Structures are given as structure tokens and as C-alpha cells.
Amino acid sequence: MTGNADSIETVTIQLKDGSEIECGIVSIFPVPQTNSRFIALNPLYDTEFGGADEIQLFSLIPTDGVNRFELGEIDESIFSLVSDEFFRIIET
What we know:
Elements: E1 10-14, E2 20-31, E3 36-43, E4 56-62, E5 69-72, H1 79-91
Antiparallel strand pairs: 1-2, 2-3, 3-4, 4-5
């Protein structure tokens, strides 16, 4: 992750096809009912991954590295729970 006082915090993610996308980190948040953490990302420019006006939600999967994680797809059975928590957080 990168960032400074004049910019938003960003992360570069690598897609399955090997391409990379720079995204702004909107929020990293827990969902207590799942005992998991999630991340909301906003692509900094329009791509096949998503538009610059879209928020993408992912689960955070810890890896061995310090401050390293993988992004996981959110299971359909809990997606509404995660999105509801995200909107609750950003509205407060």
C-alpha cells in the first residue's frame, strides 16, 4: 500500500490474467458475524475490472508476508451481510 498526505491510500492488485490495476482503498472493515475482514476498493481508472465510479468488495485472506494479503471473492451467501456492513460504516 502507498499513500501520503496529499493522496489517497492505494494498492496495486494483480488480476488472474497478470495485468495490474491501481485501486484506492475505500475501507478495510470487519464483519463480526463472519469473523473475517473485508476490503472495499475503487479502481483509479476504468478497466475491465471495474469503472472508476464503482466500489468492489473482497474478503482479505492473510498470507505469510507482513502487510500482505490476497483478495478473495465473497461468498454469495454472505455478500448482502458484507455490503450492508460496508454501507453502514461509510454512512456513519
